[in-house]
Amino acid sequence: MRLGVLTSSRADYGIYRPLLQALEVSSRFETAIIAFGAHFDPVHGNTYRQIEADGFRLAHRLKTLVEGDTAADIAGAMGLTLSEFARFWAANAKNFDLVFALGDRFEMFAAVSATVPFNMAVAHIHGGERTLGSIDDKFRDSITRMAGLHFTAAREYKERVAQILGSDRNIHVVGALGLDNLKKIRLLGKKEFQKEYGIDLSAPTILLTFHPETVHPERSGRQAETIVEALRRASDYRIVITMPNLDTAGSAIRRVFEAYAAGEPGRVRIVENFGTRGYFSCMSGASLVMGNSSSGIIEAASFGKYAVNIGERQAGRIAGRNVIHVPVSAEEILAAVKKIEKSPPPGKENPYWQGGAAKRILEVLSEKNHV
To answer: Which of 20, 118, 182, 321 has the most CB atoms at less than 10 Å from its CB?
Structure first.
């Protein structure tokens, strides 16, 4: 079975990684990675290098970036991505029996949209979810409509995909694929982590990732300033910040965080891209997770870490009892930190763990292909 795997950024690659590893060791599948989007952006860390460092070959590279992150820039990037993939699929559609698309980003939506005139078979991972504070919600549901095979992270999400499609055929609950990483990756201990990154996790540490609420991008800078106000007052903690994805108004958040780190160089560290092992090692060693990344909702529970989910970007997602939801308010953020300090560990129960997603996806593919 000839598979294509669409990856546009670190956001989806880290999740794909266990599936790519499983496909690589199976003789039943021929897999080609199709990289595009922010993977080739130096501002976001040229993350295609992480794919290669993990031992995978990029079969195809499409340059689909435009400069800037205004609404017009994002729309332009969507148009360029659609145009580039129109040419790519015209030359290569016949070489794929199935193409994987993951998640909900605008780049992924454009790449999948271009498959429709070619009547290509698409498998969608992480459909049915809700993120009401992000325009990604619309892209995710649209990709669901364009796909014919679906792998969801929870039964509730399967039901929503079925509602969107009007049918429950070809929808499989497999859990969150990214959680498979936690069973495969040897995480760095605190001493190893400090040696590699120069960050001492033996001190109380907050791991922060905050992306724009793209339904209200004009708020991004002010929201980042509010978070910084809270962090300045949480003076007992060191702060590790991973920077936002390529989204509308992401640069406004970057500017605020860069100024904050420059003003407190001994306490605040910015890391553009840890890579999968580095990021999860940091999460494992940190005192708590903060921001509005899906990793606080999905992965943090498996580490037994509390996550302070700020604002509305992730509104609508299923969340475990480790997640504390707060508005973008310095007082509310600080209150959540104080609550965590007084609370027992949340345990490691995770609503997104179904026993191993990559294995189940391969079983479904084998059944479909009768191999």
So the answer is: 20
